[in-house]
Amino acid sequence: MTQFPSSHGELMLGGVRLSILAARAGQTPFYAYSRSALRQRIIELRQTLPTKIKLHYAMKANPMPALVGLMAHLVDGMDVASAGEMKVALDAGMAPHDISFAGPGKRDTELRQAVAAGVLVNIESFREVDVLAQASQALGLPARAAVRVNPDFELKSSGMKMGGGGKPFGVDVEQVPTLLANMGRAGLQFEGFHIYPGSQSLSAPAIGEALEHAYALAVRLAAHAPGTVRLLNLGGGLGVPYFPGDKPLDLTRVADTLERLVQRAHADLPQASLALELGRYLVAEAGIYVARVIDRKQSRGQVYLVVDGGLHHNLAATGNFGQVLRKNYPVAIGTRMDATPSQVTSVVGPSCTPLDVLADRMLLPEAQVGDLVVVFQSGAYGASASPHLFLAHPACLELLV
Ligand SMILES: *Cc1c(COP(=O)(O)O)cnc(C)c1O
C-alpha cells in the first residue's frame, strides 16, 4: 500500500534514502511529506474530474506552513477552520477571495478578522449573521458570506458523520430560508452554499449519492437566497485506504456524477462554481511518520519494537483518533525494505500506556535497535492532531521533501 520506491534496502521519499532523511532531520521522530506525491494527486484529480470543478484544500488535514505554501499554488481555494489557520493561508499567499472559513464556534474576533481579510465566511448560526453585519459596518468593508447547511441526509459508509440529524455544524436546512432572509436584511454579501455531508468514504456510489443530494438541496435553497449563488461547495468526503482490505476510491465514478451536476448547473445555477473541499484525500498518502527503534524486547513470546515516536505525534495511527476498532496502518521497517517479513512484531511507542501501539502483531522483517520504522498514510491528521505535550517527550519535526 505504498507509493514510495526503495533503493539499497531503504525506503525513498522525494528521491532521498530514509537514513539520509533522518540525518537531514537531525532527529527522530519526524514526518516527511513528498512534494511530488502532493502534486501528483492534484494532477490525477484534475485529469479525472470535470475541468469546471474547483478543488479546495481543507487545511485542518495538514496545516504545516510549507505544505500549505505548496498547496496554495496547486488548488483553487482553501478552507480554514480558525483565524489561526486563516493566517497560515494568507501568509502562504492564498488570495483572500479564495479562502473560506467554516467551523461551529467562530468567535466574534475571528469573524471580524475574516471580514477585515476579505475571506468568505461559511455561516453556521443566526448569531454569526449579526456579528458579521456589525463587523462589516464597523470596518466599512463587505462581509462575504455563504451558508453552511446541515443537510437532512448524510454520507453513508463514511468514517465520520458530519451532517444529518442534530449537529453542531451548519444550520438545519429547515431554518435556512429564515437565515437567508436575515442575511439579506443585514446586508451581507451572499455568495452561496456549503454542504458537507461526511468524511473518509471509500464508496463512490455513496459519495455520488451525497453529491446529488447536496446539489438538489442547494438548488432548492437558492430560490430563497438574497443574491446569486456564485459558489456551491459540495464538501467531498473522499477517503483514502488505511487498512488491509480497504480498496482505493473509484474516482472515475465520482467524476461521472460531477459531470452530470456540472451540466445541470448550467441551467439551475448559471453563475455558480462547483467546488470539492478535500483534506485527507489530498495529503494523507503523501506523508510518512518515521521513528527509530530504541529497544527490542520479548515478553512471553511476543516481540516488541519500542520506538521513540507514537501516539503523542501520530494519534490517528495508534487508533485513538475516533476509530471504533483499532486496526494497523501500513507499517514497514524502512531500513530493511528488502528483508522478508518473518516475525510477528508489535511496534509500540515510549508512552506509559497500552494505547501507544503503532503496529499490533504485524508480520515484519526482523529489526534491531537503530532501525527506522515507517508509518504510511500519515500526511493527514498527524502532527497537528496529536497530544504533543503528553508525557513531555521531545517534539517531532516535519519535513517537506
Ligand atoms: C474536516 C473537514 C474537511 C476535510 O475532511 P477530510 O476527511 O479530511 O477530507 C472538509 N470540510 C470541512 C468543513 C471539514 O470540517
TrEMBL record:
Positions bearing N6-(pyridoxal phosphate)lysine: 60
Enzyme class: lyase
Taxonomic superkingdom: Bacteria
Active site: 352 (proton donor)
InterPro entries in alphabetical order: Ala_racemase/Decarboxylase_C, DCO2ase_PEP1, De-COase2_CS, De-COase2_N, Orn/DAP/Arg_de-COase, Orn_de-COase, PLP-binding_barrel
Assigned EC number: 4.1.1.20
Keywords in alphabetical order: Lyase, Pyridoxal phosphate
GO molecular function, one term: diaminopimelate decarboxylase activity
CDD domains, A to Z: PLPDE_III_Btrk_like
PROSITE patterns noted in UniProt: ODR_DC_2_2
Gene3D superfamilies: Alanine racemase (3.20.20.10), Lyase, Ornithine Decarboxylase, Chain A, domain 1 (2.40.37.10)
Biological process according to GO: lysine biosynthetic process via diaminopimelate; polyamine biosynthetic process
Domain named Orn/DAP/Arg decarboxylase 2 N-terminal: residues: 37-284
Pfam families for this protein: Orn_Arg_deC_N (PF02784)
Cofactor(s) essential for the protein: pyridoxal 5'-phosphate
Protein name: Putative pyridoxal-dependent diaminopimelate decarboxylase, exosortase A system-associated
Provenance organism: Rhodoferax antarcticus ANT.BR
Taxonomic classification: Bacteria, Pseudomonadati, Pseudomonadota, Betaproteobacteria, Burkholderiales
